[in-house]
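I'd like us to work through together how a protein chain folds, taking it slowly. We need material for that, and I hope you will provide a protein of your own picking. Go ahead whenever you are ready, and we will take it from there:
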Amino acid sequence: MFNWLTATVFAVLGLIVGFLSLKIAKKQIAVRVEKIPELGEKFNPALLERKWIPYFWVICFIVLYIVSLLTCSNLISLIYTVIFIFCSFNIAAVDLAIRRIPNELLLILLLISIIRDIVEPIVTKNTSDIKYNLIYALIGIVGGFVLYIIPSLFGIYIGSGDIKLSAVIGFSLGIIGYIQAMLIMAFIMFVYLVILLITKKGGLKTKAPMGPSLAVGAVFTLLFPFLQGHINLW
């Protein structure tokens, strides 16, 4: 599937989608701040207005879309991946800026995951995989929900958006992929903690949004599913 022409096309696609994605993320933040002004006072809705953000954002999309072209085995998987990246980036941005996770993006992730789990086996003529894909996804969504709901039972605050995102990621990646995404998230959070301690800007009790690190972990897992190559439930 990869050649220089398609790589160039996907680089341009990443540029265009990245630009549009940033505009949409800013709009999502503005709408929520307008409805709940307290978000603007408590958090940082102007986060995406920094001058270097557009360059970083678009470069990430270009690189990830080209990597998608290299790693995806078929057209259905490729379409799914580019949409997944779009949703994940917007979820990460909105959560980082105002600690909100857009429900509409979670719904899109759910819908495209269901479509992929059904359509991809049909296209590849492995229709028996549909049942396993859906069972695997259901195990993932239960695991993602339970893992995040348990801390709240012991008085540890976990936002409802984080719980829903965790469940959706579990459904999208399956339980093994979800575990890998969580490990990556834990590593990112650990690095963040180390930076806070070194700069003396926070510590163990400093609250941080989990959405961005989980979204990054999910995208990385989708592109490089290392654990799935070593662990098989069936």
